[in-house]
Amino acid sequence: MALQIIVGAQWGDEGKGRIVDWFAADSDYVARYNGGDNAGHSVTVGPKLFKLHLIPSGIIHPKPVAVLGNGMVVNPKAFLDETDMLQKAGVEINPQRLRISYAAHLITPAHMALDKAQEVARGKGNIGTTGRGIGPAYTDKATRRGLRVGDLLAPDFLQHLSAQIDEANQQLSFLGASPIDNGAVVEEFQRCREAMLPYIADTSLELCNAISAGQRILAEGAQGTLLDIDHGTYPFVTSSSTVASGVFTGLGIGVTAAEGAQVTGVCKSFQTRVGSGPFPTEVFDDLALRLRGTGQNPWDEYGTTTGRARRVGWLDGVLLRYAVRVNGMTELVITKLDILSGFQTLQLCVGYHQNGKTIVDLSFGPSNLEGYEPVYQELPGWAEDVSAIRTWDDLPAAAKGYLDAIAHLAGVPVRLASVGPEREQMVENK
Ligand code: IMP
Question: Which CATH number fits domain 267-428: 3.30.450.40, 3.90.170.10, 3.65.10.10, 2.60.40.2380?
Answer without folding.
Answer: 3.90.170.10
